[in-house]
Specification:
The protein is an alpha/beta fold. It has eleven helices and twelve strands. Helix 5 crosses helix 6 and helix 9 packs antiparallel against helix 10. It is globular, with a radius of gyration of 20 Å. One of its GO terms (molecular function) is magnesium ion binding.
Length: 361
């Protein structure tokens, strides 16, 4: 059993450093109390770094990410800083491709007492996971699309190799959730197979993998219908798996169901590496004001502990991942210490301190 881990920390842009500091503090205290080691290594990247140096993701930073046991990445990018072609600085996407982080994991959970724009029927709970393929799809030609005077083209790519890995991951997660009592053990393939041959190919690969898991259920849904059902009956879902662009859009819709991006964590996971980051952006309009909501970053850190613990058979990390998630949920449920995006007046440090208090640290 491994009990000491190196974490590469990308502090990010805008509010990124403000939500990273308290998150690392919480993780440090949990590790000390839990008897395991977390060593944090700050590595530069992002839009501000690009503006200063001309590099958005230095080679040394990529090397540090490869060498780390896990990567904790804060909000990245600034609208005012772009590449010469007009696209935004997105080191997180570069990391996904370079490290083959094919599974973008986006939990959607509405717990009792959490504010949501939905009118949930009594007794209905929302607890599902959207898995977004994160290395190809419509993002394949990012920054390399063809643009002429009269037309523009981007290429969607779906490969057998990545799709098979993605679907094995999805069914594995469904089994883990079923064993933990958090889902019925069902995977839904979200596509547009009725229109595009690429998605018919995607669906056929999904069905082939589903046949390897007779103890789990599987079904299909078109992406437009899925968006509708996210609003009308989100409690019906367990694990959903989809293409990169579809997942990008649906994950924001899922965050909206939870009350906003401020409480939406995520992970991008591959065979050997994983990045954990909040779904929201760098919010430069409030940077430096101490108002940013740290909860999505803290919840992403909880996902990191869980992943490290399962990967290295360390039950203390798994338990602390659950404790940290439940502590955040308890603070939000109580409603006494909320940041402005959730209807409160608390600042970043106050919200993080409430989580620490809930943990008893």
């Amino acid at each position: 059993m491994k009990d000491s881990f190196e974490i590469a920390v990308f502090n990010g842009d805008g509010i990124g450093p403000e939500i990273t500091r308290p998150t690392v503090d919480i993780l440090t205290r949990l590790a000390k109390a839990g008897g395991y080691g977390l060593r944090f290594k700050d590595v530069p990247a992002g839009a501000a770094h690009y503006a200063q140096t001309g590099e958005s993701l230095p080679e040394a930073s990529m090397a540090a990410a490869r060498a780390a046991d896990a990567i904790l990445l804060s909000a990245m990018g600034l609208p005012s800083v772009r590449y010469p072609d007009g696209t935004e600085i997105s080191p997180q996407i570069d990391l996904r491709k370079a490290l083959t982080l094919f599974a973008g994991v986006r939990p959607v959970r509405i717990f009792p007492g959490q504010k949501t724009p939905l009118n949930l029927p009594e007794g209905k709970e929302v607890d599902f996971v959207l898995i977004r393929e994160s290395t190809e799809g419509l993002f394949h030609t990012q920054g390399r699309g063809e643009v002429s005077e009269n037309e523009a083209r981007e290429t969607l790519l779906i490969t057998r190799d990545i799709s098979e890995k993605l679907f094995r991951f999805a069914f594995g997660l469904a089994r883990e959730r079923k064993d933990a009592g958090r889902g019925p053990g069902r995977v839904t393939c979200v596509d547009k197979a009725n229109v595009f041959r690429a998605f018919a190919f995607f669906r056929a690969l999904f069905d082939a993998e589903a046949a390897n898991h007779p103890d789990l259920a599987s079904d299909h849904a078109y992406v437009d219908a899925t968006a509708l059902w996210f609003v009308l009956k989100p409690w019906d879902f367990d694990v959903l798996v989809t293409e990169n662009m579809f997942g990008d859009i649906l994950s924001d819709l899922g965050a909206g169901l939870m009350g906003g991006l401020g409480v939406a964590p995520s992970a991008d996971i591959g065979a050997d590496h994983a990045v954990f980051q909040p779904c929201h952006g760098s919010a430069p309009d409030i940077a430096g004001q101490g108002r940013a909501n740290p909860m999505a970053m803290i919840l992403s850190a909880a996902m990191m502990l869980d992943w490290l613990g399962l990967r290295h058979d360390n039950r203390s990390l798994v338990a602390d991942g659950t404790r940290l998630r439940e502590a955040v949920e308890a603070v939000i449920r109580r409603g006494e210490v909320l940041t402005s995006d959730l209807g409160g007046t608390a600042g970043t440090e106050e919200a993080a301190s409430a989580v620490l208090q809930e943990l008893g640290l």
